[in-house]
Design a protein that fits this description.
alpha+beta, five-stranded antiparallel beta sheet, elongated
Length: about 200
């Protein structure tokens, strides 16, 4: 009996141990089962954050690109406006600068000087006072210039524009009273100074 009782006791102990171990296993499995949805939920919550982060980066990049396009479009519009304004000013000023009348040339130097800027302003003034003016007075010379055509050949930002201009010039003098027509081609650089387009260079080509 003692052996049977011991066996039963051992069996009962084994059963109890098995039950307890099984209970512990079930408990651990339950905890894992409970924990898994939490992990999945956290992962699901992290993914939208990543998506929002990516969308935010894309939005910033698109905003930067749009800003650059807007800047370059505005800059190009400003350059085109400068080209138009410089061209109009060049045609008006070059026509006057290259036209002479011996009866008024000595008195309009100040008006001519106001159309110029830079070193060319001094060079033109010296040429007019020392050579062109005396020759025009002596020969009773009159010259009328007109622009046939012009085109922009270069720009530096919105403050400097270079043009190629084709001119017709009609000249009369005491020795040759009949008008003489001649053509010329010049390269003109216009500079914006305090909102006004002035001639900074004029070179025959």
């Amino acid at each position: 009996m003692s052996r049977l009782g011991g066996a039963l006791t051992a069996t009962r102990g084994g059963i109890r141990t098995g039950i307890v171990g099984g209970a512990r296993a079930v408990g651990t499995g339950a905890k894992v089962a409970v924990h898994l949805p939490g992990v999945a939920w956290a992962d699901a919550r992290r993914r939208p954050r990543r998506a929002f982060t990516v969308l935010g980066v894309v939005a910033v990049v698109l905003a930067v690109v749009a800003g650059l396009f807007g800047f370059f479009a505005l800059r190009q519009a400003q350059i085109e406006s400068a080209r138009g304004a410089a061209s109009a000013a060049a045609e008006q000023k070059v026509t006057e600068l290259l036209s002479y009348d011996y009866r008024t040339i000595q008195n309009d130097q100040q008006d001519r000087s106001a159309m110029l800027t830079g070193q060319f302003k001094d060079d033109y003034g010296s040429l007019l006072a020392d050579i062109v003016g005396p020759a025009a007075t002596q020969q009773q010379l009159t010259t009328r210039s007109s622009v046939v055509t012009s085109s922009v050949v270069g720009t530096e930002g919105t403050e400097q524009v270079t043009l190629l201009m084709f001119l017709n010039q009609t000249t009369q003098s005491a020795a040759k009273p009949d008008p003489t027509l001649s053509g010329s081609r010049i390269r003109v650089t216009m500079q914006e100074v305090d909102g006004a387009w002035l001639v900074s260079e004029l070179t025959p080509v």
